[in-house]
Protein 1
Amino acid sequence: MPSILIRSRGVIDHHGDLIGDSLLVEDEVVRGLGKAPGYVTEIRLDGYILPGFVDAHLHVKGLGTSLYGADLRWARSPEEVAERLAAVKGPLAVGRGWDQEAFENPKLPDRRLLDKYVPDRPAVAIRVCGHLAVLNTRALEEVEPWRLYPSHVDRESGILVEDAVYYAVNKLLDKLDNKELVKLGLESLHSAGVVGASSMACSDSEIKSLYSIARSSGLPVRIACYANKENYKSHLGLEAPRFKVVGVKLFSDGSFGARTAALRDDYEDDSGNRGRLLLTSRDIAEIGSYALKAGYRIAVHAIGDRALDEVIEAYNRISPGAKGRVEHASMAWDSQVEELASLGVYVVVQPRFRVSDWWLAQRLGGRVGLAYRFKTMLDRGVRLALSTDAPVEDHRPWSTMLAAIGDCGARRCGIGEDLSPRDAIRLYTIEAARASGGPVAALGRIEPGAPGELAWSPGDPRERGWKGPVRPLDLAR
Ligand SMILES: [Zn+2]
C-alpha cells in the first residue's frame, strides 16, 4: 500500500490530545503527522481521526447471537419478553437483555409462559446480565442442564443461573451456524470503529470459529481470546493472524441483578442472601499459577466485595502483575482499591453499568457509594481499562464514552464516578489494548510505528453531548 496523507479537522491521540490535523500512514503503519516527501494519495475526512477503540471485555459470539436473536432490553413485562422471542425465526428462539426491574410488575418470566408463546421449538430468554436465563420445556428437555448443574436449575420455573446458563445456551446455540454468529459480531464491531477486543470466556465453538475465520477470510478486528475454566488447557496459545488465545477467564461470582454477586453482608432487599461465591482464592490461585507459568494471562470476574476479597487474596499469592485482570470490580472498599493498585493488576470496567444498574441502591443500600469508583481507582494508581461487556451493553464506543464522562442522557448516570474525557479515551484505547494482550496489545495508539488501524468520528469525542458515531478508517480495504 502506498503512503496516504489523511487530512481532517483534527487528530486526537491516545492521550486524548489534539496533536495536529493530518496524519501520514504508509504500508498500514502510522508514520507521523503532516506531510512527508513522496506521499501518493490524499484523503479528506470531515471529522476527527482517532486511535481505533479497543474493547477490553466483550463476547464476540454473544454479540453476534444477540444481533441475530431478539433484543429484549427494556421489555415491560414477561409477556413482552415472550412475544419478542416468538418473533425470532429459525430452529431456536433466542433473545437477550430483559431486566425484571424494568417490568411494571417485577415477576420473572417462566417456562410455562415461554411454552405458550413458543410451543414448537426450543426457546431461551437470557437476562441482561447473562447470569440468569429462562428456558421453555423443549429447551430444558433437550439440554437437561440439571444433570450437570443440579443446584443452578429450577426445573419447575425453567430458570437457570450461572454455570448452567453458560452450558445450556452454548448447547442450544449448536442449532445455529456458530461461525456466522461470530462473523456477525466481528463485523458489527468493525463498523463501529472498534479495532481490537478481548473476547471473554470463549466456548470451544467460538474459539474454533475465530480461528477458522482468521485463517480464511481474515478477522476485521483483532481478538485476544480468554478461554474458560473447562477448556483453557486445550486452547491456551492457539493462534492465527490477528488472533490468539492469551489467557483464561474465571467467574468468582454472579451479578447484582440476579442477586448472585457475592457480598460481605446481606443484600439490602433480600436479607439472609449474600450471593454466591463460585470460586475460592485457592481455586483462582491454582488455575492462575498454571496459566502464568505457561506465559499466559488470568482474568477473574468479581462483582461483589466478597468476590473481590477472594480474587485479591489469590493474586497476592501468585503476583500476576499486569498479566492479572479483575473484571468489573463493581464494588470496592478503599482498602480493596489500595490492594488492587499495589498488585499492579488491570481492572477492566464497564461505564454503561452506571446506566443499566439504576436500581442498585435497592440491592446495596448505603453501600451503593462503593459502586463503579472509576475516578478513585485511577487517582490511587489502579491500572484501569474500559469495555462494554457486549452484548450486556451496547458495543458502540460512543455510548460507553458518554457513560464514562457522566453524560448518560435521559436515563442518567445515577451511580458511580465520572472520568475526564482525556482519561476515558486513554483507558478505552491504549490501556484497553495493554490489558487485552496478544495481537491486540499494539493497538489503540497514534504514534509513529503504530498499526494504521484507526477510526474517525464527525464530532469530537471529548465533548459532552457527542453522539458519535465512530467509523473505521479502512485504509487497506
Ligand atoms: Zn462479560
Protein 2
Amino acid sequence: MVLEFRSVTKEFTGRSGDFLTAVKDVSLGVKEGEFVSVVGPSGCGKSTLLSMTAGLYQPTRGEVLVSDRPVTGPNAHVGFMLQKDLLLPWRNIVENVEFGLEARGVAKAERRDRATAEMRRCHLEGFENHYPYQLSGGMRQRAALARTLAIDPEIILLDEPFSALDAQTKLILQNSFAGTIAESAKTTLLITHDLSEAVLMSDRIVVLSERPGSIVAEIAIDLPHRDQPLKRRVMPEVNDYAAQIFRHLRLEEKAA
Ligand SMILES: Nc1ncnc2c1ncn2[C@@H]1O[C@H](COP(=O)(O)OP(=O)(O)O)[C@@H](O)[C@H]1O
Ligand SMILES: [Mg+2]
C-alpha cells in the first residue's frame, strides 16, 4: 500500500478547551497507482485526512503510513494541492513549478529540466515566462499540478482543486488532470463534493458520514477510461454510480 490509514481518529481541542472529533476510526488502504476519491458532507474531516497524510497534523489515535513508513511530521514524499493554486505572483510559471525542488536543494539546471518536463506534461509548454496573473484559472491549476508533480511525490493529494471553476472549464481541467495523472502513474487521493467528478475520475470512492467522519461506503468504479473523464461522462453507468453514492449520503433523511 502506498497510503494506509489504520484506525485513525483525530480530535481537536477548541478555543474553549472542548473536544471535537473530526475523524473517527478510519481505516483505508490506497494501492500504488490507484485513484481514490473521498466524498462526504462539509466539515466531516476530509481535509483533516489529507493534512494527516501530509504530516501537518498527527492522528490522536491510530496511524497513517506512506509507503509503509509512519508519517510523523511534514512529509516530503507527499504532494499537496489545494483549491487555491498558491502560485507566487512575483515568480514566472517555470520558477513557480521549480519552487518545491529549490526548497529541496536540487541544482539549478536539473530543477529547470524537471520543471520544463512537468510543464510539458501539463500542457503548459510556451508559458514558462508568463506570470500567474497572465494565466486563466484553469491554466493556473495546471501550473499548480505541475509544481506538485515536479517533486516526484509518492502520492498526490488534491483538495477540491476544481471547485472554484466554471462548469465547462472544470470538465476540461478534469480531463487534463486525469490524463496527466495517469501518464505519471501517481497514486492519488482526491477530495470533492462533486459526485459525478468522483465517478468520472476514480478507481474507487470512499463515502464519509457526517462529523465525526467515518467510512460508510466504499464503491469501486468499474468503468474504462479513467484517464479520460470526458469519455466516461457519456456512459449511462455514471449516473447510476452517482445515485448510489448519493443514497449513502442520506440527505433526504437529514432534510426531513
Ligand atoms: N486545526 C483545527 N482546530 C480545530 N478544529 C479543526 C481544525 N481543523 C479542522 N477542524 C474542525 O474539524 C472538522 C473537520 O474539518 P475539515 O477536515 O476541514 O472538514 P472538511 O474538509 O470535510 O469540510 C470541522 O468541524 C473543523 O472545524
Ligand atoms: Mg475541506
